[in-house]
Write a structure and sequence with these properties.
This protein is α+β, with helices and mostly antiparallel strands and 476 residues long. The chain folds into 2 domains: 284 residues, no CATH class; 160 residues, no CATH class. Helices cover 50% and strands 13% of the residues. Strands 8-9-10-11-13-12 form a 6-stranded antiparallel β-sheet, with helices on both faces. Strands 2-3-5 form a 3-stranded antiparallel β-sheet. Helix 6 runs antiparallel to helix 7, helix 6 runs antiparallel to helix 16 and helix 6 packs across helix 18. The longest helix has 29 residues. It is globular. The mean pLDDT is 93.
Amino acid sequence: MKTISHPSVKERKARGKSARVDVPPDAHAGWTPARGRPDPVRLLEEQNTTREVDLVPVRHGRMMVSPFTFYRGAARIMAADLSDTPTAGLHVQLCGDAHLSNFGGYASPERTLVFDLNDFDETLPGPFEYDVKRMVASFTIAARDNGLRKRDAHDATLAAVSTYRDAMAQFATMNTLDVWYARLSEAELLRAIKHAARTMTRAGNGGGAKAAERAAEKNAQRAHTRDSLQALSKLAERIDGRYRIVSQPPVVVPLRDLAPSIGRSLDEMESYIHEQFRAYRKTLQDDRRHLLERFEIVDMARKVVGVGSVGTRAFIVLLQGRDEGDPLFLQVKEATKSVLEDYLPKSRYAQPGERVVQGQRLMQAASDIFLGWTKGVEANRYMYWRQLRDMKGSAVIEGMGPTELTFYARICGQTLARAHARSGDPIAIAAYLGTKDRFDHSIADFAERYADQNERDYRSFVAAIKSGRLQAVEGV
């Protein structure tokens, strides 16, 4: 039987202050690669052994675009590096891959747009610093990729971590249920952007502020149009009165084209899909299962997604409700062992798909009602299910100027703090972070040093492609 302790606020503060003595906030500065650091290219090669062979070159092609896209696909490399960094012993549910492109908007069950973390393939309990360092370093790398001055890159980086610390201090003062129900809605986000724009205008930076405001409003408007109907118009065609997914290889390959290539008949594949679908429905709440049972499967396809995920199994399923004008697209993604599980305790969930779903539910203020999981048809393959497009939107990082990137850094820092406060102890973490900026500058120093290492790893990666050690297909 699990025993739950309930320390007092005073005891929780004391725990954070004690950790501050054991691992001072400035201990995170001065990072250097560990002696005997694994070859980053070899780590990627090891990941490729379980991926779709024909998609591995696509993954490499997407990663070689820039040091920033390389960083997006290098979660395993950074997990190895983080394992040797100091930690305060204050654990939370980690996103595991909290770079700035894994934040965005989506629809809550109440059909309002919220901003939150949106990728949990690597989620696992662990030291809160791991997520903070991955997020903050991504701002340094993105700023460099966008050609920002060193000072502007530093300001954006510092904004991400200082906002995390300030937000955690605020969550430490809130009641437990208030922390749990906290969320960043579309209205709150746009109000914050307008307020920031007015403040920057008074400070003489009105042009950049107004551009950031217009971009945010445009992204929000676009997100409202991204639903299953919009996906139907982009991904499907109507043949003989029924919709089917359009073939766009190698990014989208319908089941009818995929089955022969893997030595299965179409009937066999359709049987597998329906079997998986029934197993997936059992992982949903009763009311949501009842809702999903009103839809029937129409078609399915393999669909390449992301950067780091390319090569893992990923599919889309087209379902139909009352008629062909009532579509629902689901995404089915392979869940593998988290890259953090080589360095942290294994997940309590034996099924990696459940690990992803439960981690997501714990960290997000509101989650997709269709989140569920299944064991794949093949041995040691596991999947999780969710809606493909449900008002999902993300910021366009490429081309962001100093003002936009710094504001976005604050939004992401606040969001990560809220996600950590839900699963961890905000009082202890806030006490550890303190009221001064020692932690901020220490993490910013780490981020700049890690950005340098990421560039060196990127060059090694590109050299491996040019030498023929790795294969890459660009532009897909």
